Amino acid sequence: MLVEMVNDGENMKCDEMKELVTLYAGGELMPEEVTLVDSHIASCKPCREEVEEYRVIAKKLSALKEEPVSDDLWDDMWSGIKEGISREKKVIQFDMILKYAAMLLLGLGVGFIGYIFNRGQDSEIGATAEQVTAKKMPFAESIVARKLFLPNEVCPVDNKLGVAVSNVSQSDLARLNIPGGGIQIKGILEGSVAQNILGLQPNDIVVKFDEKAIKDLDGFRKIVDEINKTGKLNMTLTVVRDGKVTNINVSGDFEGLDK
Amino acid sequence: MPEQDEVQLIEQAQNGSEEAFKQLVLRYQRRVYWIAYNILNDYDYAQDIGQEAFIRAYRSLKSFSKNKSFYTWLYRIVVNLCIDYLRSKSDVKLLQVERMQIISEGNPLDNADATESLELIKKAVRKLPVKYRTVLTLRDIQGFSAEEIGEILDCSSATIRWRIHKARQMFRNIWTRKKIEAEHDE
């Protein structure tokens, strides 16, 4: 390593200098390294010239920092940004057909699922996928067969929404640039509220409900409890899907959820 | 440490104030643009990506901790966008059309040599692999400290130091070669 060099500069060989000469002009060297270089180049012309070359390079590069441009560029840029912000604010409206179709599926799907999974019980976050399967009614085998996506690990499950969820790993959070955290949909049941009403898909990462950041499972549970209690849906979900951030606007009532 | 007024701006923007966000944009859009331009060497892409960086920042603003450094967070967004963009281009050369540097004042002929030499430098920068180009941009072109660069790129200072060293070494080799080629063309 650079700082382990014991020799004083004069006795140093030129190739030992290689790593120091690039950093000398830029000021990244430790004081003792600067001294080493100074004493070496005092008696070594080639290295002195190389140091000078890097000094010139640094100066030329710094000239690229900015160029003269007209103010129109900044105005233009702000317009683009403003437009992007408006888009973020706008809700994506379900059109009427989709809403009615959702209501229809709701009547069919939720009542069905409500019967299968609830049987008068509260939502069971903490149950494993196997336990969910174990509780099924005789004709629920068809549900298992129709499962859109089966989680491959033990995940908390919400029966009323029909999702299995998990926290998002740190590396994924960093890679997808969602520092605030989120909840990943690991499993989703066909015909479920999560699929048809909320429009969620497997591997979606839910980062916000109505501007409230979802950092972890607790945050998710609170929101889910709220939905389950009121039966009213009027919210915007912000999800990261295939690396892109999308907003889903959901509205309407759903009956039969708590039956 | 961020200045108080910036913390306030961020807070207001987080609460939905577009005017507050605009102030942040005005404060940082130049740097954002030129960082993007230096890495991509294209004025249009620099503008697109610069815009996108701010839009993404707006999107993630609520989860930004206002006592952290806004500009290193913002610059990280723009650098990552540039890197993602270049990776998506893979082997295809970026920017086929050479753009003339816009000189607003002075006799163009006087500046011809300067323009040419500047273009040569830009060409040499463009030849660097992305991770070296990024570090060279941030350190030698934009003048950020090694610590700031470490925060922006989320790398250790040892890694940054090594990259600066390799980037400059590589740049020197490429630039020297280009100068020789240019002389032969004359």
Summarize the structure.
The complex is a heterodimer of chains A (259) and B (186). Chain A contains 10 helices and 7 strands. Chain A is of the alpha+beta class and 259 residues long.
What do you see in this structure?
- The complex is a heterodimer of chains A (259) and B (186).
- Chain A contains ten helices and seven strands.
- With 259 residues, chain A is of the alpha+beta class.
- Mean pLDDT of chain A is 76; it is low at 91-95 and 123-148.
- In chain A, 45% of the residues lie in helices and 15% in strands.
- Chain A has helices spanning 14-24, 31-41, 45-62, 71-89, 96-118, 129-134, 141-145, 170-175, 193-196, 217-230, and strands spanning 157-158, 163-167, 183-188, 205-209, 212-213, 232-241, 244-253.
- In chain A, a hairpin with a 2-residue loop joins strand 4 and strand 5.
- With 186 residues, chain B is an all-alpha fold.
- Chain B is built from eight helices and no strands.
- Chain B has helices spanning 4-14, 18-40, 43-60, 70-89, 112-126, 130-141, 146-153, 157-185.
Give keywords.
heterodimer, A: 259 residues, alpha+beta, seven-stranded antiparallel beta sheet, 10 helices, 15% strand, elongated, B: mainly alpha, 0% strand
Write the layout of secondary structure elements.
The complex is a heterodimer of chains A (259) and B (186).
Chain A: H1 14-24, H2 31-41, H3 45-62, H4 71-89, H5 96-118, H6 129-134, H7 141-145, E1 157-158, E2 163-167, H8 170-175, E3 183-188, H9 193-196, E4 205-209, E5 212-213, H10 217-230, E6 232-241, E7 244-253
Antiparallel strand pairs in A: 1-2, 2-3, 3-4, 4-5, 4-6, 6-7
Helix pairs in contact in A: 1-2, 1-3
Chain B: H1 4-14, H2 18-40, H3 43-60, H4 70-89, H5 112-126, H6 130-141, H7 146-153, H8 157-185
Helix pairs in contact in B: 1-2, 2-3, 2-4, 3-4, 4-7, 5-8, 6-8, 7-8
